[in-house]
Design goal:
Elements (H helix, E strand, L loop, with lengths): L5 E10 L3 E9 L5 E9 L1 E8 L4 E9 L4 E5 L2 E4 L5 H13 L1 E13 L5 E2 L1 E12 L12 E6 H10 L5 H13 L9
Parallel strand pairs: 3-9, 4-10
Antiparallel strand pairs: 1-2, 2-3, 4-5, 4-7, 5-6, 5-11, 8-10
Helix pairs in contact: 2-3
Pfam families: NUDIX (PF00293)
Cofactor: Mg(2+)
Keywords: Hydrolase
Length: about 180
């Protein structure tokens, strides 16, 4: 059990604007020593906006760290004292220019549990009103795309959507909103 682990030392190796890198020396439950290096960052949010026509709002964005343009549900950081649902609403408006009458949590997931102490809160937004985005300068290359939910699920399966939070939000929503099976007699 996790409470049987002992942290003997925790060292901050690096602190940047968005991330802290730590190295912990631990004693495992069996008594053997170990060392773990990991990052800490603010939690994140992703919000899947589903319109009345069954389409979802995705943003295409050049992601420097990945070295490619990705299709993502709008999202971003969630301050330590910020309500994740409020952060989801903020990011949806900022990146896509969308306001939602309803927002519900899909799930909370660990982003990369073996190497990062940070979670991502996933939301479904409905009752949408589309207006003007409020993107930051670093988001100027973003492009809003409306994709049918079923097509987005296929894009997850064939590798056109590859970001973990977006994949999870799309597949959870597609599962919840799939057509009822035809009755068999």
């Amino acid at each position: 059990m996790i409470e049987d682990w002992a942290t003997e030392e925790s060292t901050e190796v690096y602190r940047g604007r968005w991330v802290v890198v730590r190295r912990d020396t631990v004693r495992r439950p069996d008594g053997s020593p170990g060392s773990y290096e990991y990052t800490e960052a603010v939690d994140g949010v992703r919000v899947l906006a589903l319109d009345d026509r069954g389409r979802i709002a995705l943003v295409a964005e050049d992601v420097y760290v990945c070295g490619r343009r990705l299709l993502l549900c709008p999202g971003g950081g969630c301050g330590a004292d910020e309500d994740p649902a409020a952060a989801a609403r903020r990011e949806l408006l900022e990146e896509a220019g969308i306001r939602a009458a309803r927002i519900e949590q899909l799930t909370t997931m660990w982003r990369m549990p073996a190497g990062a102490r940070t979670r991502e809160h996933l939301y479904l937004a409905t009752g949408l009103t589309v207006g003007e985005h409020q993107r930051e300068a670093s988001e100027a290359d973003m492009e809003l795309r409306w994709v049918p939910l079923e097509e987005a699920a296929a894009m997850c399966a064939d590798g056109r959507i590859t970001e973990a939070g977006t994949l999870t939000a799309v597949l959870l929503t597609a599962r919840q909103h799939r057509p009822a099976a035809a009755p068999t007699h």
